[in-house]
Amino acid sequence: MELMKWTPTNELRDFNRMLTRFFDEPFLPTAQGEAGKRVWEPKVDIYDTKDAFIIKAELPGIDKKDIKVDVDGRLLTLRGERKSETEKKESAYFRREMFFGSFERTFTLPEAVDPGQIKAEYKDGILHLEVPKPEERKPKQIEVR
User: Fold this and answer.
1) The domain containing residue 55 runs over which residues?
2) Cβ atoms of 98 and 61 closer than 8 Å
3) At 108, which CATH number?
4) Burial 2-26 (b: 16+ CB within 10 A, else e)
5) Domain for residue 13, yes or no?
6) Rounded Cα–Cα distance for residues 52 and 66 (Å)
7) How many CB atoms sit inside 10 A of residue 126's CB?
8) How far from chain centre, in Å, is Cα 108?
9) Cα angle: 121, vertex 126, 129; to 5 degrees
10) What is the tens place of the pLDDT at every residue in 17-62?
11) Of 22, 64, 51, 12, nearest to 138 (Cα)?
12) Four-residue CA torsion sign, 138, 139, 141, 142
Protein backbone atom coordinates (compact mmCIF):
# COMPACT_ATOMS: atom_id res chain seq x y z
CA MET A 1 0.00 0.00 0.00
CA GLU A 2 1.32 3.40 -0.96
CA LEU A 3 0.91 6.35 1.39
CA MET A 4 -0.28 9.62 -0.10
CA LYS A 5 0.31 12.97 1.46
CA TRP A 6 -2.92 14.76 2.33
CA THR A 7 -3.04 18.33 1.05
CA PRO A 8 -6.01 20.31 2.42
CA THR A 9 -5.50 23.11 -0.11
CA ASN A 10 -6.45 20.75 -2.96
CA GLU A 11 -9.75 19.97 -1.27
CA LEU A 12 -10.38 23.67 -0.67
CA ARG A 13 -9.74 24.43 -4.35
CA ASP A 14 -12.18 21.72 -5.40
CA PHE A 15 -14.77 23.00 -2.93
CA ASN A 16 -14.29 26.56 -4.21
CA ARG A 17 -14.84 25.43 -7.82
CA MET A 18 -17.96 23.53 -6.81
CA LEU A 19 -19.40 26.57 -4.99
CA THR A 20 -18.58 28.86 -7.89
CA ARG A 21 -20.42 26.59 -10.33
CA PHE A 22 -23.36 26.29 -7.93
CA PHE A 23 -23.85 30.04 -7.60
CA ASP A 24 -22.87 31.10 -11.13
CA GLU A 25 -24.78 28.64 -13.31
CA PRO A 26 -28.32 29.83 -12.46
CA PHE A 27 -27.32 33.39 -13.38
CA LEU A 28 -25.37 32.79 -16.56
CA PRO A 29 -26.82 34.37 -19.69
CA THR A 30 -27.18 30.90 -21.22
CA ALA A 31 -30.32 30.37 -19.16
CA GLN A 32 -33.33 29.08 -21.01
CA GLY A 33 -36.24 31.46 -21.40
CA GLU A 34 -39.80 30.73 -22.43
CA ALA A 35 -40.23 27.84 -24.86
CA GLY A 36 -36.55 26.92 -24.50
CA LYS A 37 -35.22 30.08 -26.14
CA ARG A 38 -31.83 31.30 -24.97
CA VAL A 39 -32.10 34.65 -23.22
CA TRP A 40 -29.50 37.31 -22.52
CA GLU A 41 -29.19 40.56 -20.67
CA PRO A 42 -26.63 43.18 -21.59
CA LYS A 43 -24.05 44.00 -18.94
CA VAL A 44 -24.39 47.44 -17.33
CA ASP A 45 -22.40 49.78 -15.11
CA ILE A 46 -24.40 52.22 -13.01
CA TYR A 47 -22.88 55.00 -10.99
CA ASP A 48 -23.88 58.19 -9.24
CA THR A 49 -22.28 61.58 -9.87
CA LYS A 50 -23.01 64.93 -8.25
CA ASP A 51 -25.53 65.91 -10.93
CA ALA A 52 -26.72 62.68 -12.53
CA PHE A 53 -27.07 58.91 -12.50
CA ILE A 54 -24.99 57.32 -15.27
CA ILE A 55 -25.92 54.01 -16.90
CA LYS A 56 -23.59 52.38 -19.41
CA ALA A 57 -24.80 49.26 -21.21
CA GLU A 58 -22.81 46.93 -23.46
CA LEU A 59 -24.83 46.43 -26.63
CA PRO A 60 -22.37 45.24 -29.29
CA GLY A 61 -23.78 44.44 -32.69
CA ILE A 62 -27.08 46.22 -32.08
CA ASP A 63 -28.31 48.93 -34.42
CA LYS A 64 -29.19 52.22 -32.75
CA LYS A 65 -32.73 52.06 -34.14
CA ASP A 66 -33.29 48.74 -32.29
CA ILE A 67 -32.70 50.29 -28.82
CA LYS A 68 -35.55 51.78 -26.77
CA VAL A 69 -35.30 53.61 -23.44
CA ASP A 70 -38.50 54.34 -21.50
CA VAL A 71 -39.06 56.10 -18.19
CA ASP A 72 -42.25 55.62 -16.22
CA GLY A 73 -42.09 57.33 -12.84
CA ARG A 74 -39.08 55.80 -11.09
CA LEU A 75 -38.66 52.92 -13.56
CA LEU A 76 -36.18 53.18 -16.42
CA THR A 77 -36.53 50.36 -18.94
CA LEU A 78 -33.92 49.51 -21.54
CA ARG A 79 -35.04 47.16 -24.30
CA GLY A 80 -33.92 46.18 -27.73
CA GLU A 81 -33.06 43.41 -30.10
CA ARG A 82 -29.92 41.98 -31.63
CA LYS A 83 -30.76 40.46 -34.98
CA SER A 84 -29.37 37.07 -35.96
CA GLU A 85 -26.62 36.83 -38.52
CA THR A 86 -26.16 33.95 -40.91
CA GLU A 87 -24.96 30.75 -39.30
CA LYS A 88 -21.38 29.70 -39.87
CA LYS A 89 -20.47 26.07 -40.29
CA GLU A 90 -16.97 24.72 -39.97
CA SER A 91 -16.34 21.13 -40.95
CA ALA A 92 -18.86 18.90 -39.17
CA TYR A 93 -19.19 21.16 -36.13
CA PHE A 94 -21.75 23.81 -35.39
CA ARG A 95 -21.09 26.41 -32.70
CA ARG A 96 -23.01 29.49 -31.64
CA GLU A 97 -21.93 31.48 -28.58
CA MET A 98 -23.32 34.93 -29.38
CA PHE A 99 -26.81 35.70 -28.18
CA PHE A 100 -29.48 37.06 -30.47
CA GLY A 101 -33.01 38.19 -29.86
CA SER A 102 -34.81 40.61 -27.60
CA PHE A 103 -33.71 41.83 -24.22
CA GLU A 104 -35.21 44.00 -21.51
CA ARG A 105 -33.67 45.44 -18.34
CA THR A 106 -35.54 47.60 -15.84
CA PHE A 107 -33.88 49.78 -13.22
CA THR A 108 -35.53 51.59 -10.31
CA LEU A 109 -34.30 55.14 -9.93
CA PRO A 110 -34.11 56.61 -6.42
CA GLU A 111 -36.77 59.17 -7.33
CA ALA A 112 -38.85 60.38 -10.26
CA VAL A 113 -36.84 62.17 -12.93
CA ASP A 114 -37.78 64.34 -15.87
CA PRO A 115 -37.65 62.03 -18.93
CA GLY A 116 -37.13 65.06 -21.20
CA GLN A 117 -33.78 65.76 -19.55
CA ILE A 118 -32.27 62.29 -20.08
CA LYS A 119 -29.39 62.20 -22.55
CA ALA A 120 -28.60 59.03 -24.50
CA GLU A 121 -25.57 58.39 -26.68
CA TYR A 122 -24.71 55.16 -28.50
CA LYS A 123 -21.17 54.73 -29.73
CA ASP A 124 -18.96 51.70 -30.39
CA GLY A 125 -21.50 49.27 -28.91
CA ILE A 126 -21.87 51.17 -25.61
CA LEU A 127 -25.08 52.96 -24.68
CA HIS A 128 -24.39 55.87 -22.33
CA LEU A 129 -27.41 57.25 -20.46
CA GLU A 130 -27.17 60.36 -18.31
CA VAL A 131 -30.18 60.75 -16.02
CA PRO A 132 -30.05 64.18 -14.37
CA LYS A 133 -31.04 64.32 -10.71
CA PRO A 134 -33.99 66.53 -9.84
CA GLU A 135 -32.97 69.86 -8.32
CA GLU A 136 -34.07 68.91 -4.81
CA ARG A 137 -31.92 65.74 -4.97
CA LYS A 138 -28.65 67.51 -5.75
CA PRO A 139 -26.44 68.06 -2.73
CA LYS A 140 -26.51 71.63 -1.50
CA GLN A 141 -23.74 73.47 0.30
CA ILE A 142 -24.96 75.19 3.42
CA GLU A 143 -22.90 78.07 4.69
CA VAL A 144 -22.15 78.00 8.41
CA ARG A 145 -22.10 81.45 10.05
Assistant:
1) 39-136
2) yes
3) 2.60.40.790
4) eeeeeeeeeeeeeeeeeeeeeeeee
5) no
6) 25
7) 14
8) 14
9) 40
10) 887 777 765 555 444 454 445 567 889 999 989 889 999 999 998 9
11) 51
12) positive
